[in-house]
């Protein structure tokens, strides 16, 4: 059905591996867990997250510095100041960092400071941005649009691949539905379908999908069981004070518990969370 | 938000157990797997399924005898003849049987021959049917409507509960969405939410949700990881010859493999599939 | 695409006319406007509506006596008492009456007292009810399901037609969508499609579609312009006191204004609202 | 509900008028009809459209030169060559021209050659593009996203307004739904709601909404009856040869007929199509 040429798997063994660092790669046996706040708010915040969670272990940190907000009057992100915070935390804690890029003009400054460029749901079919990311030598995390079909999602990846960048990871993050009890509906059928259709790694964002922190853990487990190559999960040192998406962020303690609960599940489906948990000795950075 | 009085859990330990037989119950530690064809087609078909799968083990058999079909010209089910087949297989193989009831008039004859009455998605808000099932002493399997909100689903159960029948099991079976790559979208966020909101057992039908047999197994695993109390899965001795939903039925061999693959996963989330697999000595019934 | 045999138009002139009374028919040049409350609450209420609106003119009255409510604890309708109110108003004011039938058991008593039996959205695929209505000699108003495709809608009509009743009117009443600013989304593309696909009359319910009274009039106009054969609109003597759907009912004064505003529009698209307005001399019934 | 500051109407008389030329303005008594092909394919094509339709009369021409296509292998538009064709036709036929801008880099060259810049559905929440358009002195035609809520749509306009450009026209073009019988579902309830909520002109694109040319005319009429300030409709000299969206384009003859059929309808709802039809003397440009 799809006229993709580069994104489709030619056989069931065909699997692209996307490396964030020598130690962290999507698409292999390793389950990659990315954690962090929706929005980078301060150096203290990001250092606290890194200090507490690197040894959970998380494999990468997330944090938005340019934020796509429904209202022009909502906080739009720290911008360059946020990029610098990410850059410092990345080098100090030796942990890969992911952040969203909203326009072509932001690519250059961000690409040198982080390990992976995220395309947000609202930009999944911002084709000029996709083409520009096709010319960058950085992995791209492509989030599914709010109402994108599986075919449109694969073809959006094809835009990046066909412009020269083969390092694309797909991310299912919930689709729009008629019921607002949960924020969106996590479509794990799409994850299973994408794992068969394409050779690209597929990860899941249960936080944005469900929008309520008490439902994140069961959906994170479900995603791993369905075959996801990784997870991206919102967490915050003080969730109820988060400047955005406060309702869905986990506390750092709950994030640690989630990683612990995923370890045996990952093993059952042939996956591994690299690194042993090593939390106890870590002090929280002073504010 | 919900003005349900009987369906809501009063605390996190509050859990109803619905028994199909002395050995089979929903809502406890046991993971209940119901398998069988969409439609009862013949005695041979149902005996083959029972012979091959009882020791998989499956905990219950399904098979439709009154079929809600989009077209009046499609096969509408074997009716009473099908009820008799179910009744015979049930007593001969000592395995509980589930079938759909489409109208009040069918309740009496079906209720004496099977162990659980299913309300299909299209009838989730057939309130007169729900009221009538509230007066029956049989467990009810209530499937979520194609576009029912979580609130409407819980309130449909409340209709049955408030009319006197407390033996209700909820079933998530996929909701309508904009993408027809999969038949529906399996909403595991709803499963997680329902497990927290209500004290009723919640099971999942991955077959109708996804509509393609190659995607059933990952979604069945995801459902168990998300906390489902059971699964209902279509399988058929000759899937491609099925009179309905041929595209989504598993072969009996694949059904056995699926149960095997669920066993370690169930264990990791604190569940158990009762009975050890005991397939090898079973001969297929002659046609 | 559809395997309907009886519902499809064989050419662009093929049009069924469904008569409610010698003076009122759907499917001809006449635009049929049905008005009245969501729920029959009292004799005073229905007489007030009839007194004020018969000369608007409305062609028929609506009012629910068996109500499909999400919660079992919500008012379920006056039942037989309501049927008697409808029957009296119908004979006293000589105006056709439409009401919903929710189950097979209600058909007989209702069918003798009203002029048209409505199948509600939640029962559009209650196939046993449809089959039973196929054997009744009364026009049926079939409302589209909340998430029914055009094909499923036509096939639901086919159930009634193929069981012997050719007097079916289709009603588009809004479908479920992701935005809850309006209650549902009125799908006038479906109205245009159904007018071309089938020979059955097609009417529109803008009240349930949009759920806000201030938006009913523009959608009623749009429906007429799109080719609808009639409208069914909620109105109430005291809208804010309505026991159900209070937010969407028009006042009787606004209902009169709406009919007035539709008259020139109907003329432009080749339709006519039969009867000249004759409101001034009508006294309101004493309470 | 909305925290928009600039887009909301302060009272029912509050109405912005957006001028495309001295003779063509959205938001007044005049109904503005924009016609033309999905994609600019050649000078001959655009001249044919202008020659035949200017006197229909159409008030403005549309034609895409940068095309957002699902697949990177589909024709992406003529680019600068297409801008030149638009510019020539615009000056030769003295008719305003509208075209889509997909990225910030395209704004400058396009803005000097056309009269209105369109933001496509896929870019409705491309916030950096919206901010950039807020600094341009050209009217913007903002299309609703495929699954954008009314609130999100208004807030997208607010991005443009709050960055300095008050010349914004909203366009409803159908939303995603579960039924693919029509391409999308035209949401005229949103049009009625937007006319009450905001002071911005609101137009409708029935072609993309329904995706089948035989359904365009009834929906165009419905849009006018619902209160739309204008229409944007696809038409093509040889519809079946169109490089994109061939299934929904009207022939030029049908486009003329549509305008004719809208004239009396517009009058009934207090609108006017400026200019009298003057088709007969117009010769088609030689190919």
Name the features:
two-stranded antiparallel ribbon, globular, TIM Barrel, 9 helices, homotetramer, 13% strand, alpha/beta, 8-stranded parallel β-barrel, 10 strands, 287 residues
Biggest beta-sheet profile of chain A: 8 strands, parallel, barrel
Under CATH, the topology of chain A is which? TIM Barrel
Shape of chain A: globular
Query: In CATH, what is the homologous superfamily of chain A?
Result: Aldolase class I
Distance between the termini of chain A: 54 Å
List the secondary-structure elements of chain A in sequence, H or E: EEEHEHEHEHEHEHEHHEH
**Strand order, biggest sheet of chain A?**
3-4-5-6-7-8-9-10
Largest interface: C-D, 42 and 41 residues
CATH class category name of chain A: Alpha Beta
Radius of gyration of chain A: 17 Å
Q: Average pLDDT value of chain A?
A: 94
Percent helix range of chain A: 25-40%
Gist of the model:
The structure is a homotetramer of 287-residue chains. Chain A has 287 residues and is an alpha/beta fold.
Describe the structure.
Four copies of one chain form a homotetramer. With about 290 residues, chain A is of the alpha/beta class. Chain A has one domain: Aldolase class I (TIM Barrel). Chain A is about 35% helix and about 15% strand. Chain A contains nine helices and ten strands. In chain A, the strands form two sheets. Chain A has an eight-stranded parallel barrel with strand order 3-4-5-6-7-8-9-10, surrounded by six helices. In chain A, helix 4 crosses helix 5 and helix 8 packs parallel to helix 9. The radius of gyration of chain A is 17 Å and the shape is globular. The interface between C and D is large, with 42 and 41 residues.
């Amino acid at each position: 059905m799809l006229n993709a040429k580069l994104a489709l798997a030619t056989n069931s063994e065909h699997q692209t591996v996307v490396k964030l660092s020598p130690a962290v790669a999507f698409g292999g046996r390793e389950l990659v867990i990315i954690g962090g706040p929706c929005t980078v708010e301060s150096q203290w915040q990001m250092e606290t997250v890194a200090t507490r969670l690197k040894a959970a272990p998380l494999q990468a940190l997330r944090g938005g510095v340019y934020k796509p907000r429904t209202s022009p009057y909502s906080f739009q992100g720290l911008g360059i100041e946020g990029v610098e915070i990410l850059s410092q935390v990345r080098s100090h804690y030796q942990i890969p960092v992911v952040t969203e890029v909203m326009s072509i003009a932001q690519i250059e400054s961000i690409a040198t400071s982080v390990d992976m460029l995220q395309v947000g749901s609202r930009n999944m079919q911002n084709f000029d941005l996709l083409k520009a990311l096709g010319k960058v030598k950085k992995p791209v995390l492509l989030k599914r649009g709010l109402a994108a079909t599986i075919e449109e999602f694969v073809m959006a990846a094809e835009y990046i691949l066909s412009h020269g960048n083969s390092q694309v990871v797909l991310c299912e993050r919930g689709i729009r539905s008629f019921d607002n009890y949960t924020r969106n509906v996590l479509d794990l059928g799409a994850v299973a379908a994408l794992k068969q259709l394409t050779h690209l790694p597929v990860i899941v964002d249960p936080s944005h999908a469900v929008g309520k922190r008490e439902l994140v853990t069961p959906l994170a487990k479900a995603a791993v069981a369905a075959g996801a190559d990784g997870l991206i999960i919102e967490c915050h040192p003080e969730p109820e004070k988060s400047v955005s998406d406060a309702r869905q962020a986990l506390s750092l303690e709950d994030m640690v518990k989630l990683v612990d609960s995923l370890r045996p599940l990952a093993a059952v489906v042939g996956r591994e969370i690299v690194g042993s948990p090593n939390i106890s000795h870590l002090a929280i950075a002073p504010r």
